[in-house]
Structures are given as structure tokens and as C-alpha cells.
């Protein structure tokens, strides 16, 4: 019997041909025709002022920290239930992450707790859209406006998702996307910065190009380019962009197939939820998602561990997710006086992610049967 992995990267079939075309054109170093196509697609899909491909979502977050002028002694409010890059991007600038608990329903930052965490040192709020289900952005944006704070959307899992019909990543001042191989649309590693404020576009281009005005030079706006600001090499190669373009061409079809798998899971496990054995994901009516993941919440750590072990015996890989950042060695060193975040800690102990990848359709009945068997005591 074949084992079923948690993830299996999907290729549309045009990726290698696009890479070969980039090679034939003699441009592999980035910002070629495929990068331009990706930028155009992202701008049209999200409505942002400017999209810029980066070599990772981490890089896009780091650019966001620079654009937000985050520095030594500043504070940035974010959830603890997130990937380490969300915090690292600001910590390397000298800022302190202020962790806020999450909502028990969507597992997003609890918007009702944000205002109490604001101090005179607060510079930004990072809204992490967990599983592509939107944070409550209306209240977050209202809080930010009243306190003159920047909002950065960590929409790593949120491509083609929306909040009240507005695409994720296009609501805050800045948005970030991921194209890591575990995401819906991939380029191996990769990401994008979405700039929603026109006044930040020029500097974003400079920061991405090692602090130079090289982009303006290639547009013929200056007769030579030079070092004008801080920055780094944040742009990906044209080979990465070529691979990504093949994925973006099929992004909506990919999303439709993933949603079909997600809904099969959701319907199949309704009886487990009714029996009190698990809790299924909750998606508010005003949020649309793209089936980045399907997870189940178990009553406690013991039940989750038993479930994962049972699936392993059935040769099906299911995994837990984030270890809360506030309980990590680095998180504790930055926040020695941090109080408990009970929802975050509870969710981290109880959540299991199930396999969800294109091609899983052929094995879905087997996975569903194994999950039901393993979840029953």
C-alpha cells in the first residue's frame, strides 16, 4: 500500500517550458518578462497599487518592516500562533513582538485584545490570515487609523481569499504572500510584497533592488542608477518567476480543485463533530478561502497524539502546526514578562492538519475512512 504524504507539490506542466524560454531570452537574473507577467496578475487579482515578487514571504515581511520604519525599541503587535518569519522580520530591525491571543473560532488574532496591547512604542499591527480565512480587518483598520499604526497583512496562506469580497493582502498598508512549495500556488520558494499605498511604491522598489534606483534606470527615468537607500537582494531569479507564472496561469483552477477536496473532508467529518470527537474549521460567511489547509481540533493533546499515530500506522501523514512563538526560547528571551495566551496554547496542542494536495482525489476515500477510524475511541 502506498503511503500518503502530507504534501505533494503540484506542477501544471508548463513550468519547465517557461524556464527554458527565460534561458533562451538570455535573462535568468530576475525582473524579466515572467516577473512582469506575475506582477500584472497579482495587481489585477488583488487591486494593490504595486506587486513585487520576492524570494520568499519572509523577504516581503522584512521589506515591510523597513517600509514601516520599524527600528530599535519599537513594538509590533501580532499573534503568537504564526510562523517564525512573522516575528523575525521585525526582530532583526530591533523591534519587540507583542503577542496577542487568538480567537477560538478562526484561530486569527483576537481583534478585541489588540487595543489593550498598544503602547507609545507600538508602530504596527500584523494581521496573519490563518488558513486563508481573514482576520476581522474592519476593526483592525479602525484601531490602526485611530492610533496612527501601520497594518501589514501576513497573507502567506491567503492568495485568492477575501474579506467582505476584498482580496486579502490589499486591505492593510502592505500585504505579503508566499509561494513556498506547501502553498496553493508555488515556485519552490518565493513570495510577494503587495503595496497598497502609492507613496510607498518607489521606496519598495529601491529596497528590493539592494537600495538602488535600478528599476527607474531600466524604465528610462534616470540615466544611471546608484545607491540611494538601505535595501537588500530581495528579488527572485527569472527562473523562479517563470515557474510561478505557469502556476498563476492555473491559479483559479488549482483553487477549485483544492476547494472540492476541502468540502469533501468537511462533509465527511460532520458526524465526528456532532459526536464531540473533533471540531471542524470555522469560516465566517463574510470570508472566502482557497482551501490552503484542512485541520481538525481534538479535545486534548493525548487524543491528538493518538490520532496522528493511528494515521501513521495507516501510512497517512498528518501533522500538527505552530509551536506558539511566545513559548519558544527566542520568544521568552524577548518577552520575559509575557502572560499566558490560553487559546493559543490550547489550539497548538489540539490541531492536526490533514493531507491536501492536487492528486489526492484518487486516495481521498481511503484518507477519509482512516480519519474516521482513527478519531473514534
State the main characteristics.
Aspartate Aminotransferase, domain 1, 2 domains, 377 residues, 7-stranded mixed β-sheet, alpha/beta, 12 strands, 3-stranded antiparallel β-sheet, Aspartate Aminotransferase, domain 2
Strand order of the largest sheet: 1-9-8-5-4-2-3
Share of helical residues = 25-40%
Number of domains: 2
The total of helices stands at 15
Low-confidence stretches: none
Can you tell me the CATH architecture of the largest domain? Answer: 3-Layer(aba) Sandwich
Principal-axis shape equals globular
**What class, by secondary structure content?**
alpha/beta
CATH topology of the largest domain: Aspartate Aminotransferase, domain 2
Residue fraction in strands: 5-15%
Q: Compute the number of strand runs.
A: 12
What top-tier CATH class of the largest domain fits best?
A: Alpha Beta
Radius of gyration using CA atoms only: 21 Å
Major pleated sheet: 7 strands, mixed
Q: Averaging pLDDT over every residue, what do you get? A: 96
CATH homology superfamily of the largest domain: Type I PLP-dependent aspartate aminotransferase-like (Major domain)
Order of helices and strands: HHEHEHEHEHEEEEEHHHHHEEHHHEH
Give the termini distance in whole angstroms.
Answer: 25 Å
